[in-house]
Automatic annotation (TrEMBL):
A GO BP entry: DNA damage checkpoint signaling
GO molecular function: histone binding
Protein's UniProt name: BRCT domain-containing protein
Keyword hit for DNA-binding: no
Coiled-coil segments on the chain, per record: none
PROSITE patterns in alphabetical order: BRCT (PS50172)
Gene Ontology terms: cellular component: nucleus
UniProt keywords, alphabetically: Signal
UniProt xrefs under Pfam families: BRCT_3
BRCT domain residues: 1-36, 53-156
InterPro entries: BRCT_dom (IPR001357), BRCT_dom_sf (IPR036420), BRCT_p53bp1-like_rpt2 (IPR047250), TP53BP1-like (IPR047252)
Region forming the signal peptide: 1-16
Amino acid sequence: MKYLKALALGVPCVSCQWVLDCSEERTLLAPLPYTLPNGYSLELRCYVTAFTSPTKIFANVAIQVHGDAAFVKDWGQTLAAADATVIESVASSNGGGLRVDPAARFVLLQPLKKTTKRLGSLTTAGDAASTKPVTMEWVIQCLINQRVLNPMRMPQYHF
């Protein structure tokens, strides 16, 4: 989660060799030669190197996060770091349906069987017909690629 939050904030992630070399040289070295890639892009089918200027990937994008309290907290913080408007939706213990906030453009669902069952009520209730249910992989890939991706492009991105 910390690596994803760093990507969301535009903080360069460096290898531990940078720390060792800085210690050995007794000065802060330029981080660029030690910068790690953002991750593997399913879109580009290769590792994507970090961008030099941080972007607010989810600026002006409302994302409802639905799951247990820990899931909502962790993913909500990561999305907020990428400038998303986060709408928290903690799953009830009685297994009630998911009420989609009409402001949400996407709904990030925790990958549980209970959540998948709630997906039926999300898509058929018509609460927010244009709201797209997305997976954690979609969020990760948006962070890696530094842009909002079409969740219908890859089966790993949507339910």
